Amino acid sequence: MTAVENPETPMGFGRMHRKEDVRFVRGKGTYVDDVALPGMLHGAVLRSPHAHARIVSIDASAAEAHPKVRAVVTGATLESLNLAWMPTLSHDVQAVLATDKVRFQGQEVAFVVAEDRYAARDALELIDVEYEPLPAVIDAKKSLADDAPVIRDDIEGRTGNHIFDWETGDKEHTDEVFAAADVVAVQDMLYPRVHPAPLETCGTVADMDPVTGKLTVWTTTQAPHAHRTLYALVAGIPEHKIRVISPDIGGGFGNKVGIYPGYVCAVVGSILTGKPVKWMEDRSENLMSTSFARDYHMHGEIAATREGRILAVRVKVLADHGAFNGTAQPTKFPAGFFGVFTGSYDLMAAHCEVTGVYTNKAPGGVAYACSFRITEAVYLVERLVDVLAYDLGLDPAELRMRNLLRPEQFPYESKTGWVYDSGDYPATLRAALDLADYDELRAQQARRRERGELMGIGLSFFTEAVGAGPRKHMDILGLGMADGAELRVHPTGKAVLRLSCQSQGQGHETTFAQIVAEELGISPDDIDVVHGDTDQTPFGLGTYGSRSTPVSGAATAVVARKVRDRAKIVASAMLEVSEDDLEWEKGRWFVKGDRQAGRDIQEIALAAHSDLELPEGVEGHLDATCVYNPPNLTYPFGAYVCVVDVDPGTGQVTVRSFFAVDDCGVRINPMIVEGQVHGGLADGVGMALMQVMAFDEDGNHLGGSFMDYLLPTSLECPSWRLGETVTPSPHHPIGAKGVGESATVGSPAAVVNAVLDAVKPLGVRHADMPLAPAAVWSAMRGNPLRTDLAIT
Ligand code: MCN
Ligand code: CUM
User: Which residues form the signal peptide (predicted)?
Assistant: First the structure.
C-alpha cells in the first residue's frame, strides 16, 4: 500500500484524506438504523421456509391479537391496495408479499408492525401459514426440462421456465472463422452465484405524514431518485410528495440498487398506522433474499492459429435469474453488458447466445461490483485465453501480448458493437509484468516445481465499460441516464455542490469537491457535497456501474466551468476590461499581460452578490446547473498478475502476492482510487477462493451466515502491489474513467488462472470457482466439483 504522501489538502486533484472520514472514524455517521422518530414503530418480515410451495392459507389473527402489534400486512392487504406486485428494475414483476405461491426460500410472506422490534419478531411466530410444498427447481440446467415445475405460473400463458434468448455478434461469420481455424480450445465454466454482502444490511424508515400527505423514506439506496420515481409510479403517490433520503451507507456493492419488498412494506405499514415504521433486515435475511449476482453457466470456445493469433470467440450461456428477475438488469440487453465478452483482444469475429431461466432462488443477476455481467464476460475470456495457452503450450503473458488491441486502434469498435474510448493495452501489460518481475517469477516457479512445490502465476487483462450511459446501452423505467449537478458559490467564496449520485463508501464528498477545486481554485475543504436526498439534489439515476465519476463527475466539471465563465463576466465588470482580455489561472481571472491586475474567485463571488453593474441580461450571484448526458461509456482497463502457492496435500491456496496495474484515465484522488482497487482485489480473491451461494436439492439456502458464506479477510489477502498507467478518456471533460468495480471485475480470473497454473503439472486444465481446498483437491485428482451445489 502506498502511504499518503501529501496529507495537506491539494487545490485540485491529488492525494488527500477523505473529508467524510472525520465523521466515520469517530463513529458519527448517520445510517438508516440511526434514524429514530417520535412514535416510531418496528416492522419484521415473515419469510418462506420452502423454496417452492403453494400457499393454502394464511391466518394472522393470533398475531393481530398480540398486545404490541399494530398491523399485520399480508399479500391480501396489499392486493386491496393494488400493491401486491412491484416492478423490478429489470422490467419483471416481483410479489411484494407472496399470495399464490412462494418461489424461493426466504421469500417475503407477511409483515408485522409492532411497538418494538422484539414484539414484531415474536408476532411472526404467531402467523399460521399452511403450505403445500412443490418440487423446487434449483439447477438452471434442469429448469428447461419438459417436466420441470413452472415457477412463474402467475404470468399468463407461461408454460415453462425459459425467459429469453438473446444473442450478439455475427454468427455466420464467427462459425466460418472457427471452421477455418488451426486450433479451437473449448471450456465449460461456471461463475457461481455470489452475494455482495455489504457491512450494513438493507433497511428503511418510512414516515407518511397523514396531515400533509408527504412520504419521507430514509432508505439504504444507491439510487434515491430512481426509488422515488418508482414509488410514485407504483403507489400512485405524487412524486413531489415523496422524499427519499439515503443517509450514510455502510457499503452497497450493488446490493442497494434495487427495491426490496421490505422497503415497500415499511411504507405500507406507515400508511396503515399513520406512524413512522422502521424495518432493518438482519444478516441472514440480507444473504437469503436480496440481490444475487452471476449464476452464469458458460460454454466458451476460442479459435486461433497454431502460432497463437486469436481469431474468434464463441459463447453459449445459461443464465440463472432466480424467481423474479426476468431480465438481467436495468438495461436494454437482457444479458446486460455481457456483450463485452470479446475482452481486450483484436478478434476477427465473435458471437454469443444467452438463455435466461427462472429457478427457485432469490431474484438474481442484478449486481455485485460487476458493471452488470462484465465480471462474467471478463472471467470467461480470460479463462479461455489461458486454456488456449495451455493447449498451445504458450506462455499466457506472451499470448496476451500478441493479441491485445494496439493503441492505434482506438477508438475501437468491438465485434459486438462497443466503442472502447482509449487505451494503450500493451504498455499496461508490460507495466504489470515489470512490476511483478515476471521472468524471475517464472524462473523461480521452475525451480520450485523441481522440488515438487505447486507455485502458480496467473494473469488477467480486463476492459471494463462503465458510466451508464447512453440510452443505447441502458435505461431504467425508460428514464435515460443523464445526471444533474448544481453548484452554488456563496458570497464569501465557499461553495455547495449538489449531486444526484450517492456514495456508499467511495469518498464522493472528497473527490467531487476536488473536481470543483481543480476547476475553480476553491479549496476542497470549502466545498460541501450534498447527495442522497431527493429534496435537496437534482434528478439523476444514482451510483452503480461505476458511473459517478463518468457521469456525475463530468457534470461537476461542466457545472464548475459554467461558474468559471460567469465569474469571467463578473471579473470583466470589476476590472472594467473586455472579457477577451482576461486569462484564467487556477482560482483567479487576470488581465492578459498584467498578472497583478486580477481578481480571485472569492473576490469575484462577493462582487457577484453585490450591486456591481453587470452587462444587460447577466444575472447576479455565482450559481450554475448542468445535466450531463454522456456520449459514451468510459472503458477503464488493467493488467493483473497473481502468485499463489497450493498445498499439494490439502489443496489449500495461499495468495502470495498480487500485482495490479489499473488505468482509469486521470485520477482525481489516487489514494481513493487505490482504496477502490484494494477492495476490489479482496473481492476477487473472495470469489475465486471461497464465496459461493450454494443450495441443496430442495432449494434450501446454504449460505445464511458468514460461517457458511465466506468473505475474505486480511489473512487471505496479500499486501497488494499497485501500479498505474494513465490514458485519459477523450470524451470525458477531465479525462477520468470510473474505477469502482475494475478490480472486482478483473481479479477473479487472475487468481483462478494462478491456481490452475500451479496445478498444471498434474494435468488440470480447468476447475470452477470457488477454488476452496475441496475443489482444488478434487481437481488435482481429476474429479472436478460442481461447487454451487456441493460446497457449503
Ligand atoms: N475516482 C478517482 N479517479 C478516477 C475514478 C474514480 O478519484 N479516475 C474516485 C471517484 O471520484 C470516487 C471513487 O474513486 O470517489 C469511485 O468512483 P467511480 O469509479 O466513479 O465509482 P462510483 O463512485 O460510481 O461507485 C460505484 C462503484 C460500484 S458500482 C460499486 S458496486 C462499488 C464501488 O463503487 N461499491 C462500493 N466501490 C465501492 N466502495 C465502497 N467503499 N463501498 C461500496 O459499496
Ligand atoms: Cu454492478 S454493482 Mo455496482 O454497479 O452498484
Answer: none
β-pairing, 296-304 vs 310-320, is antiparallel
pLDDT along the chain (792 residues), means of 10: 61 97 96 98 98 98 98 94 80 89 97 98 98 97 96 91 94 98 98 95 97 97 94 90 98 93 96 97 95 93 98 97 74 82 98 96 81 94 98 98 98 96 98 98 98 98 90 68 95 98 97 98 98 98 95 98 98 97 97 95 98 91 97 97 98 98 98 98 98 94 94 96 98 98 98 98 96 96 83 42
> Residue 248 maps to which CATH number?
3.90.1170.50
- What stretch of H or E contains 303? strand 296-304
Residues 580 and 645 placed together within one structural domain of the fold: no
**Which of 371, 547, 676, 739 to probe ligand 2 with, by most ligand atoms within 8 A of CB?**
371
pTM above 0.70, yes or no: yes
Cell of 320: 440463472
Q: What residues are paired with 165 via a beta bridge?
A: 355
Give the ligand 1 atom nearest the CA of 550. 20
With respect to residue 685, please indicate whether it lies within any of the assigned structural domains. yes
Tell me, using a 6 A CB cutoff, whether residue 506 lines ligand 1: yes
Say yes or no: CB of residue 367 within 6 Å of ligand 2.
yes
Distance 359 CA to ligand 1 centre (A): 32
Query: Is 543 touching ligand 1 by the criterion CB < 6 Å?
Result: yes
518 closest CA partner among 398, 302, 671, 666? 666
Atom number, ligand 1, closest to the C-alpha of residue 256: 44
Residues 116 and 243 in one domain: yes
Q: Looking at the domain assignment, is residue 180 inside a domain? A: no
**Nearest partner of 649 among 768, 769, 763, 762, judged by Cα:** 762
Instruction: Annotate 758-773 with DSSP letters as a single string.
Output: HTGGGT----PSP--H
For residues 104 and 215, membership in a common domain is answered with yes
CA 736 to CA 557: how far, in whole Å?
Answer: 11
Distance from the CA of 421 to the center of ligand 2, in angstroms?
21
- Of 232, 254, 280, the position where a domain reaches its end is 280
Instruction: Say yes or no: 774 and 681 in one domain.
Output: yes
Question: Considering only CA atoms, which residue is closest to atom 2 of ligand 1?
Answer: 668
How many domains would you assign to the chain? 3
| 415 and 372 together in one domain | yes
- Ligand 2 pocket, residue 222 CB under 6 Å: yes
Could you tell me if residue 232 is inside a domain? yes
The count of other CB atoms within 10 Å of the CB of residue 73 is 27
Q: Residue 439 sits in which domain range?
A: 296-469+632-780
The ligand 1 atom nearest the CA atom of 742: 19
Helices (H) and strands (E) in the chain, counts: 20, 30
User: 372 in ligand 2 pocket by Cβ < 6 Å?
Assistant: yes
* Concatenated DSSP letters of 155-202: STT--SSEEEEEEEE-HHHHHHHHHH-SEEEEEEEEE--B----SS--
- Residues 225 and 231: their CA atoms lie apart, in Å, by 10
The reply to whether 614 and 646 lie within a common domain is no
Do 510 and 445 lie in one domain? The reply is no
Asked if residue 10 belongs to a domain, the reply is no
- Whether residue 500 contacts residue 556, with contact meaning beta carbons closer than 8 Å, is answered with no
Ligand 2 atom nearest to CA at 504: 5
Q: Give the CA count within 13 Å in the CB-facing half-sphere of 623.
A: 10
Supply the CATH number for residue 686's domain. 3.30.365.10
Q: 734: Cβ–Cβ under 8 A, 6 or more apart, which residues?
A: 515, 518, 553, 554, 557, 666, 668
Give 567 Cα–ligand 2 centroid separation in angstroms: 37
| Rounded-to-integer distance, Cα 44 and Cα 34, Å | 17
Last residue within a domain, chosen from 253, 280, 307: 280
Is residue 201 lining ligand 2, measured as CB closer than 6 Å?
A: no
Answer whether 738 contacts ligand 1 (Cβ < 6 A).
Answer: yes
* Distance of CA 737 from the midpoint of ligand 1 (Å): 10
